[in-house]
Write a structure and sequence with these properties.
Elements: H1 2-14, E1 21-29, E2 32-42, E3 50-53, H2 60-73, E4 78-82, H3 98-107, E5 118-122, E6 129-130, H4 135-146, H5 151-166, H6 174-185, H7 189-196, H8 201-215, E7 244-248, H9 256-273, E8 285-289, H10 293-297, H11 301-314, E9 319-325, H12 333-336, E10 341-344, H13 352-362, H14 373-379, E11 384-388, E12 400-404, H15 416-424, H16 427-432, H17 441-477, H18 490-495, H19 498-512
Parallel strand pairs: 3-9, 3-10, 4-7, 4-8, 5-6, 5-7, 8-9
Antiparallel strand pairs: 1-2, 1-12, 10-11, 11-12
Length: 513
Amino acid sequence: MEIKEAFATHINQGYACKGDHIILGSAMLEGDTIPGTHVRVPLKTMNRHGLIAGATGTGKTKSLQIISEHLSEKGVPVLLMDVKGDLSGIAMPGEEKSFITERHAKIGLPYSAKGSPVELFTLSQQDGVRLRATVSEFGPVLLSRVLDLNETQAGIMSVIFKYCDDHHLPLLDLKDLKKIIQYATEAGKEEFDNEYGRISTSSTGIILRKIIELEQQDADLFFGELSFDIYDLMRRDRNGQGYVNIIRLTDIQDKPKLFSTFMLSLLAEIYDRMPEKGDADKPELVIFIDEAHLIFDEASRILLDQIENIVKLIRSKGVGVFFVTQNPTDIPAGVLSQLGLKVQHSLRAFTAADRKAIKLTSENYPLSDFYKTDEIITALGTGEALITALNEKGIPTPLAATMMRAPMSRMDILTEAEINNINRGSDLVSKYGRAIDRESAYEILNAKIKDIEQRADEKAAREKLEKERIERVRKTTGKTSTRRRSATSPVVKVLTSATFIRGVMGILSKAMK
């Protein structure tokens, strides 16, 4: 009894909140919940990023759902990356079943079924709000990092963008970018050489191949207009609830390059455009990246550094980023060290490699007098998790094995009819639904190349006519040149030259004296 009382005091002091907060569940000791020990997370710390990890089927998705719907209820907009397609149910109220009633009785919290306001987004041809960005908005530095260009190739990319700025050529989509690169080493080679220096055709060939590789993952669907306004992610409904924005990514699971390109551009734009928020009472936006390993597995070192830098800096804009993955080791150490809230579901120890990973994982959590972390990680049941967060002063809270509350919303996907209803009622679907293909670098350069080719053809035609005329003269006169020979002999030329005349006049002048 003394241990449980000491544990309850330990947890209640560690998770005490004066300000607004969300409750994730009740702390557990030796497999049982301890009455009155609720695990609270202050809203003001939700911009300090987080991690939700655990083996398949242990409850990661439900934890993501719980946190998202409670943020929405508190007026915080949320962005969810739905890679598996199982998050859309957050739009509809859940169903109170017996196991949910029993769980909430143990936790000591009432249960209420409730859906959240939802917008459905897409990077592809699926129904929903289309997400696009222009090549110009990426800029040469970010685009070079996405394409994993070396220093020389990145320099060429900067020259390409500079040329387009100087000559007012909009770079909207990938066909614009490919066209200007081809122009720089073909029709416009002389112009580029004179104005910006020689550009290596071998380097531009490599850049073009990398752009084509990006295109093969359907990135051409993402680049273009109308560009998405990030502030459309931060809307609230008429009741003051934050929208849960779900990006449906089920059809790009095998296209990690496109996924990481989109994520990096989104984070970069949010960081660039949003003002500094300081120490706010709650975040402006919280982003959950499901299957986060898809970003990191295929990312270059340069791209990883860029993601790490943005994650470090973006929290000052009031934005939290949560990574959802099977194992914390999926996340680079530099990013993992930035995460404030950690929700660790059970891991399986089937192999020696699994046991080694569990040992490493346990070292990411605070030491506890009540748990052996590496042991309890494998003993957690479905819907249970080890949690550590940051308190209102930014200090890590004690490690707490937690029985998580149940989602208020549906723990299943929406039907096609329900998806269609959401899209029909969306103002954003119509706003971003139509692709705009205005005149840009591709069209302007095609016209310029056509003009260059026409002038070259006209010059070639003139030269051909001149050759034909010369040939006619030769056949008529037997001479190969059509230039008229001067009637003046070389002697006359000398006698009438200015130098000769000045000399003669000088001699005459001396003789007269």
